[in-house]
């Protein structure tokens, strides 16, 4: 198993994201980058073709992120019964820092009794991989996918 930077889903999320009933990690990264907090309930109110579009729509540059943000606000207004919410200022952007392996990743590796990525390895990871490891390490209900993600990224 290895990381495919062009795949829609990670192997560890195929069971729950492959159908787009849950928010895939690739979309969760885009949500963080554009500053929108989207609930699973809101996501499920979008038509399937809209969810697929959000998965494939670019969100890497500042203009892409602004367009993604504006689209999300419009989609939430059109399909959901609750207003859009901005992400609270948080330290979930730890994945952007390549100067140190985040404490949450180190702590989750310790809890799972696996070797955490070294700083050298952390620095070579794709931003999406770093995002995934931080999210899975900080999640209260998804950290069971932390070790499968490490395995998928060929880190253990």
Number of strands: 2
Across the major sheet, the strand order is 1-2
Low-confidence sequence ranges:
none
What class, by secondary structure content? mainly alpha
Number of DSSP helices?
A: 9
Order of helices and strands: HHEHHHEHHHH
Percentage of residues in strands: under 5%
What value does the average pLDDT take?
A: 89
Form type? globular
Give a short account of the largest sheet.
Answer: 2 strands, antiparallel
Distance between the termini: 11 Å
Measured on Cα atoms, how large is the radius of gyration?
16 Å
Query: What share of residues is helical?
Result: 40-55%
Briefly say what this structure is.
The protein has 156 residues and is mainly α. It has nine helices and two strands. Helix content is 52%, strand content 3%.
What does it look like?
It is a single chain. The mean pLDDT is 89. This protein has 9 helices and 2 strands; from the N terminus they run ααβαααβαααα. The chain has 156 residues and is mostly helical. It has a two-stranded antiparallel ribbon with strand order 1-2.
């Amino acid at each position: 198993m290895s990381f495919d930077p062009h795949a829609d889903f990670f192997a560890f999320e195929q069971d729950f994201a492959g159908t787009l009933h849950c928010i895939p990690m690739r979309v969760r990264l885009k949500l963080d980058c554009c500053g929108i907090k989207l609930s699973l309930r809101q996501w499920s109110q979008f038509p399937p073709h809209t969810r697929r579009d959000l998965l494939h729509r670019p969100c890497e540059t500042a203009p892409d992120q602004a367009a993604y943000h504006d689209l999300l606000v419009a989609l939430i207004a059109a399909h959901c019964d609750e207003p859009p919410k901005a992400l609270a200022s948080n330290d979930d952007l730890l994945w952007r820092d390549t100067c140190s392996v985040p404490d949450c990743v180190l702590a989750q590796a310790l809890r799972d009794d696996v070797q955490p990525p070294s700083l050298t390895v952390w620095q070579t990871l794709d931003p999406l991989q770093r995002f995934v490891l931080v999210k899975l390490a900080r999640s209260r209900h998804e950290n069971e996918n932390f070790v499968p993600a490490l395995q998928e990224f060929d880190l253990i």
